[in-house]
Amino acid sequence: MKISKRLAFFLVSFFFIFILLIGGTSSSTSVTDTEEGQNLPEAVLRWKEKVTKEAVKNEISEAVPYLLGIIMVETGGNSEKYPDIMQCSESQGRQPNSITTPDESIEVGVKYFADMWKGHREYEILNIVQAYNFGGDFLSHSGKSYSLESAIQFSKNQANGQKVTYTNPVAVRLGYDYRYAYGNMFYSQIVKQYISSDSSNTGTGRNSEIAKIASDELAEGIHEGGEKYWRWYGFNSRVEWCATFVSYVAEKANVKMDRFAYCPTGINNFKANNQWQNGGVEPRSGAIIFFDWDGDGISDHVGIVEKFENNTVHTIEGNSGDRIAKRTYEKSSPFILGYGMP
């Protein structure tokens, strides 16, 4: 009887350890977080070596994360179902899916991307990504800086205003339930979700939602003049719009924070809610940073902390030169008045 109990205990223990090992293995292979910070499935990452080789050959090695993002969006890397994994047959004047091997698809797709970018090196790479979907003619329309508005207008013109229902989560988050019936005006936005950029790497972990939304707004375009933000707030003509930008982003990120259009009002709100910290501290991602340019103790400007790294505060600011821009400041900068911590 004792032998049977020991044997049963041994079998149960062995089974438990086996389950743990199997469970650990399966959970580590579904999605990989690469050194670029891209969350991509193995079905896509298995093509990274080939993509990198072709990108280096075409002198666009910095585009590798975007090219992998394109593969993710086009086919999910499923070469068994879609041998033309970059869906680039038509870019060569061929019939759809006429490329029959993934290696050829990568060679053709990377070269197509590289040829467009080399001819427009001063253009933002998201414009090249969008042109991968629309075709090179888009670059004659877009200008150097990428904006979602430009992609929408181009698609609308090409489709003669015809709309189709479209419920991709990225489009819905941007406030749309349709696209125009030419290409995909959200293509760059969809690819971008698989790109790390600086937003996946902060001194204390991943960026907050408010910093992510601010980064998304900049990815849409620089929004020169800020009309989107001051009109959203309720103004009928232009105002200094740094605070309305912060308020817009906070509301879109579902951050509990009182709207404000005047920097001192924002500071008073944070102080009233015990959410204020004076300058000189290490801010967290998503903190609202207030500046005093002339040293009179009254805030002149406000932005959003993207991250704190190497004693440097990285920000995203509206109305910085009348546009959205990324800036950096030393932690001890005398211009930093303090932080609101919603």
TrEMBL record:
Chain ranges of the CwlT-like lysozyme domain: 42-194
Record-annotated Peptidase C51 domain positions: 237-319
Pfam hit, one: Lysozyme_like
Domain of life: Bacteria
InterPro entries: CHAP_dom, CwlT-like_lysozyme, Lysozyme-like_dom_sf, Papain-like_cys_pep_sf
Gene3D superfamilies to which the protein is assigned, alphabetical: 1.10.530.10, endopeptidase domain like (from Nostoc punctiforme)
SUPFAM superfamilies: Cysteine proteinases, Lysozyme-like
Record-given protein name: Putative secreted cell wall protein
Source organism: Listeria welshimeri serovar 6b (strain ATCC 35897 / DSM 20650 / CCUG 15529 / CIP 8149 / NCTC 11857 / SLCC 5334 / V8)
